[in-house]
């Protein structure tokens, strides 16, 4: 798993080209070339590589997609090879998932934890990925954009609507309350240097 998507895909394309069994590539070699004694393994490997060209995936995701199509031994061999080649790494996957959420769709730690659990990531791996998660910063980022669409004349209504929005995204307790008050205060006092409605609509 590599942060630079273009480099990652290029790496996968190269690996895919060198991993595909000659039987499935035209002009791959002489007709009497030796064949893999277990062609189902190569099919499984190619299927897994295709999945990884779309986006990073957890090990359990890949296993689920292969299950029922290939034997358990073939799947185990496929996953082992992908781990060895650095294409499956749940620790890196969990970290990248968190970073993508923070950058594009901020969520609370509880929501991210649930998402990763559904994707089959081990609880300890998730705990490590979220160990330095900044709930306040993520709540503020998520709330600021949404708050720019809300009227502030009715402070009570503003608090309820923004609070409900943040709660749906997994923010709770003091973080939620403090974020709502901070954003409301900044909207009522633009000189405070906080939320800028015009910038939110750019």
Walk me through the structure.
With 202 residues, the protein is an all-alpha fold. The chain folds into 3 domains: 5-84, no CATH class; 90-129; 135-201, no CATH class. Helix content is 65%, strand content 0%. The chain contains 11 helices and no strands. The radius of gyration is 23 Å and the shape is elongated.
Helices and strands: which structural class?
mainly alpha
- Spatial gap, N to C terminus: 33 Å
Low-confidence stretches: 4-9, 15-34, 198-202
Strand content: under 5%
Helical segment count: 11
Task: Specify the biggest β-sheet.
Answer: none
Helix content: 55-70%
Quick synopsis:
This protein is mainly alpha-helical and 202 residues long. It has helices at residues 5-19, 39-54, 59-66, 72-84, 90-104, 109-118, 123-129, 135-147, 155-168, 173-188, 197-201.
List the helices and strands and how they pair.
Elements: H1 5-19, H2 39-54, H3 59-66, H4 72-84, H5 90-104, H6 109-118, H7 123-129, H8 135-147, H9 155-168, H10 173-188, H11 197-201
Helix pairs in contact: 1-2, 2-4, 5-7, 8-9, 8-10, 9-10
Features:
11 helices, disordered C terminus, 202 residues, mainly alpha, single chain
